[in-house]
Structure formats: C-alpha cells, structure tokens
Design a protein that fits this description.
The chain is of the alpha+beta class. It is built from 6 helices and 7 strands; from the N terminus they run ααββαββαβαβαβ. A hairpin with a 5-residue loop joins β3 and β4. The two termini are 54 Å apart.
C-alpha cells in the first residue's frame, strides 16, 4: 500500500467515527425538564373577634409640682372605666400664660365586648375639674393573633388545592411528570381591617357612640370580618 492510499483510508475512518455536528447532545442524554405551568389560587374565611380596640383621650390642666401625681391619676382613671392592659400611645403637652401645663394623653387597650356597654357614661362620670376623659373610638378590628390563625387555615386550604390541581394535571398529561415547584403567597387582603382614623372629635365621639349603641341590650355579639389570601403556584416537570 502506497502512502497516498494509506492517507485516504485514515481520513475515511475519521469521518466515519466523528460525531454528527448537527446532533443535540441534550436530546441524546435525557428529556427536557423546562415545562412549567403557573396559575393563581385563592381562599377566604371569616375572622371573628369578641374584643374591641378602645381609644381613650384624657385632657388635664397640670401644675409643674403635681406632674407625677397627675400621670398616676390618669392611668387610675382609665382603669376605673374598665380593667384592661392600657397602653399610653400619645402624649402632648403645652404651657399657657398662667404657668399651667395642658396635657393631652391617649390610651389604648383591647376590651372584651361584654365590658363595653355604658363605657361612654363611665367616662363622663370619671371626668372631674381639671381632667376630662372621653372615649375617642371603639373599633372591632381583630387582634393580630386572630388574623394569623385564620391566615394559617387559608394557607392550608391553598396547599390542599395545589395538591388537587397537581393530581389533575398529571392525570391529563401522563407523558410529563409535574411537581410543585413553588407557591408564593401574595398576602391577605384585609380591606375591612383598616383602623378608624376620625378627622375631628365629633366624628370620634360619633364612632364610639355608634359602636356602643350596637351593644345595647347585653349579650355577646361577636364581630366577623372576611379575610382573603391569594397565592401564585408554579408546576414544573420532574428531573
């Protein structure tokens, strides 16, 4: 065999065993795993509360030497309205030409529904010369722990819905095995949970009067508000 014949035979062997340049390596080793399906799920339920968020305003004329006693008396007066875990939420002070200080203090507490009846009258009776007490607002907004308890139930409902939908898609598309890739919660929509923010004292008093009038006659009247939760769900094919 001459040199030219040997070279042609070797070149032919290289061409025969060389891989196809147009072949897709990924298609030779495995199936594609990038199929995804995304959609939204939602659930809703009611949050029920038997407590109200009560705001009390106390206005007092104070002599500098009596400041400590007045602070103590303010808290005692509020606790005499109804026993609760009162928190001081605002404190404003100014001084007039006579040297007296004017204090405006706000207290807030969650109060059981059955202790709200007659609260306005109690505030009037607790007021005295140099100290005026009034109920600023009574708001049946649920407590944070009450909202979170319902949110937990809503998340559980959405998880169950997602599993049901996963079973449906795998039954209808048997050639592709889907799994839950992610569930992203968009958050609750507590439109009715917004706290009342009255614009002036008359409106504040009207809100408190209205809430108290609803309770007239006694008996428990648990308040309910609807809570909605939405989630974005993504299914992806299994590897």
């Amino acid at each position: 065999m001459n040199y030219r014949s040997f070279f042609m035979l070797a070149f032919a062997a290289v061409l025969f065993f060389a891989p196809d340049a147009n072949a897709n390596p990924s298609s030779q080793c495995c199936d594609r795993n990038d199929d995804t399906v995304s959609f939204s799920l939602s659930a809703e339920d009611w949050v029920t509360t038997k407590t109200a968020l009560v705001n009390v305003n106390v206005n007092a004329s104070v002599k500098a030497l009596d400041a400590t006693n007045v602070r103590s008396e303010m808290l005692k007066s509020v606790n005499r309205l109804v026993k609760a875990d009162w928190r001081l939420t605002a404190f404003n002070r100014s001084q007039d030409a006579s040297g007296l200080e004017s204090w405006s203090v706000s207290f807030e507490a969650r109060v059981p529904e059955n202790a709200l009846d007659g609260l306005q009258d109690a505030a009037k009776k607790a007021s005295k010369a140099g100290m005026a007490i009034r109920i600023a607002s009574i708001n049946f907004v649920p407590a944070a722990e009450e909202i979170e308890a319902v949110q937990s139930l809503l998340r559980e409902k959405i998880f169950k819905q997602a599993v049901e939908q996963l079973d449906i898609i795998n039954k209808n598309i048997p050639s592709r095995k889907f799994r839950i890739a992610s569930i992203s919660f968009a958050g609750a929509s507590p439109a009715s949970f917004t706290r009342m923010q009255p614009m002036n004292p008359r409106v504040m008093m009207a809100n408190a009067d209205f809430a108290e009038s609803m309770l007239a006659g006694g008996g428990e009247q648990a308040m309910s508000q609807k809570l909605s939760l939405t989630a974005q769900v993504v299914f992806a094919t299994s590897p």
